[in-house]
Amino acid sequence: MSAPELDCSDLDNYIGKPMQPARMVDPIANSDIRRWVQAMHYPNLLHYDHNYASQSRHGQLVAPQSFPVVMDCAHGSAPSCIGMIPNSHMLFGGDEWWFYGPTLKAGERVFNERIPFDYNVKNTSSFGPTCFQRGDNFYYNQDGELVAKQRSTSIRYLQAAGEASQSGSTEGQDDPVWTDEELESLEDRKFTWIQMLHDLGHSPRYWDTVTVGEDLPERVFGPHSIVSFTTEWRSYLFTSWGTTHRRTDLDIEALGFVGPMAGKEQDPTLERINPEQTDGAYIGPSRGHLFPRWARYIGMPRGYGYGASMGAWLTDYASGWAGEWGMVRHSACNYRSPALTGDITIQTAKITDKFVDEDGRHMVKMDVRMTNQLGSVLATAKTTVELPVRPA
Q1: Residues 289-330: pLDDT tens digits?
Q2: Is 313 helix (H, G, I), strand (E, B) or coil?
Q3: CA distance linking residue 250 with residue 279, whole number of Å
Q4: Phi/psi at 260 (nearest 5 deg)?
């Protein structure tokens, strides 16, 4: 019997052609920013504490650099998941981010222009023939200023291959068990990172104080759970009813998602009639994150986290270290394995270079690594951060 084929021929009809843009109904609210950092495990006072933020260089609450993805109706995946691949499913494979400077605040709006970029088909050990599809998102504020660019990668593969990878096996289906002592120790490890944020406060982290080869403080969060993943999902604005001018060109079945996982996510007509069927939590492809049965249907052993959240964790880690006066300028993120329920996430990084770019900006490069408690790599990122220079 010949191996099943992955038919990607329809994708050629979309590459390089702009799609419908993403538009949120309401401007950004402080509660949106607070909800986001709470869901992303990012206790930076600049983004949720009114009194602290009012004393900052901004004079008010501001959104973290990871926030633009919240203002999209598909957390960046739309241009990397367009075109039909029959009988397929998808996972996030990575994101590359460029940040241009404007800071987002309450009362502002964000518009996302989306253009499919390219795709490549490879044979993988997990799912056989697999399509790595990329698409660009350009996030502009209400003044037309480019806030950020996101090049998102989707991994698209045959649904049968995903289901077969879990068929007849119970390996990895049970959450690890943590003792009370281990959980208490985790809270101490978590606070190491939080204390670093407090110690830096409103002070700059100067470029000349950073040393090549230096390690960043460890950041730990988790254990993850269905509850924490649900909190993440609900912090994406598009998952709330009525928040978005929904796309009229989105048809889940037309993307190749058929059978019980197809659903009617983001269908603007059905949302007005029965919105629980459209918001991605209960019905449709996204429910694999929150229901272990459906996670196994697409090739995951149990409930798993969101790729866009992993991208936010990577950005927030570097941005929190850079402080109020620094900025992540570029980050190329590679997602290797999702966070699973019961696991913890551990972030570390090493400074690999310092330089002054052609625009005279003082830059620091770092390699960021994200693992679980077993040392399995969840994601990596090569990140470039701009830092201020100590006054003469």
Answers
A1: 999 999 888 888 999 999 899 999 999 999 999 999 999 999
A2: helix
A3: 14
A4: -65, -15
Distance CA 289, CA 90 (A): 12
Helices (H) and strands (E) in the chain, counts: 8, 10
Instruction: Judge whether residue 251 has pLDDT over 90.
Output: no
- All residues at 6 or more sequence positions from 280 whose CB lies less than 8 Å from its CB, including other chains: 233, 239, 263, 265, 266, 286, 287
Contact in structure between 102 and 109 (CB atoms under 8 Å): no
Instruction: Calculate the CA 315 to chain-centre distance.
Output: 9
| Residue whose entry in the numeric block shows the structure tokens 């290797």 | 336
pLDDT tier, 165 (very low <50, low <70, confident <90, very high otherwise): low
pLDDT value of residue 1: 41
Structure tokens at 352: 């690999």
HSE of 79, CA atoms in CB hemisphere, 13 A:
27
- Best CA proximity match to 372, nearest among 308, 319, 304: 304
Say what the pTM is: 0.93
Mean pLDDT of 141-156: 96
Can you tell me the distance from the alpha carbon of 354 to that of 217, in angstroms, rounded to the nearest whole number?
A: 18
The C-alpha atoms of residue 50 and residue 45 are separated, in whole angstroms, by 8
Secondary structure string (H, E, C) spanning 320-358: HHHCCCCEEEEEEEEECCCCECCCCEEEEEEEEEEEECC
Mean pLDDT value across residues 348-359: 97
